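Collaborator request, handled under Task 6.
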Amino acid sequence: MILLKDGVKYFPYEYASEEELAQMVIEHYKEIFGVNTLYFDPQTMKTQIGIATRSDGLIITVELDVTNWYILEVELAEHPLHKHVIPQITTFNIAYQQPETRKKITDTLYNLIKQDPHKTAALHAQKIEDIHKCVTETIENPPTIAIIIDQKTPQLDPVCKNLPFNTKSTEFKTYTRENAGMSVHVHEFEPLYEKPAIPKTLLNILTVLEQVYKKEKTYDEAAKIAAKKLKLDERTVKHDCTADMGLTTKQFRKLLPDKERIRTLIIEKFPDHEDTIREALS
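Structure tokens returned to the collaborator:
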């Protein structure tokens, strides 16, 4: 396969090792698992919990008051998955069934979060004040196994079906620019999380701005068209664009010529929908 962008060719990159692929996956774990995600180093977890099995990390996600956790397994298709993944996860499952193991995992994660101001702040941003309670309830629910692989193979589905936990998988491919190597590259993968539904307020704002920036309408014209399209009162649409954004009508009108500033303000208001906002206001 070749990717072509503006006449420039990008060719498939062959990972030198699972460790190299794992490093790239870890660099982009928030794009794979979601913005509100915490990553925990596998060596730290192994040392403190004492489970003699290999994984590529542990991930906790908090989305819309729902907290999940993942055991990350990064694999190359050229390696026999049934020899790598099944024994590792089976060993982990045996240990996980013991209450003392779950307590060790909980205590370790709690301590790591409390020692890291960024992780603590991320949970507080999701309105989670009792972190220990949150982690305890999370770990009491079985994890999902996340298999990230460079290329899906016929053996992947049977392996997933034979694991003792729910399993998700996705391909993670890399392409490098012709004559540039890894200094210019792109990644291709399918995220493992479902994007939350767009709030009505955000939808109303983006519908107005679409008319302003793509149809070159004035604010008043855009609000009228958006209201008709959304089957709402025009005053409701304008209220969402101004008061709900913490702006007066005068301030909003003044900001409209600066699309980058408008985009930044909306992302700050709706951080969980950054990709949607950037796509709409590209």
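The cover message to the collaborator said: "The chain has two domains: 3-189, 200-280. The chain has a mean pLDDT of 90. Please let us know whether this matches your experimental observations."
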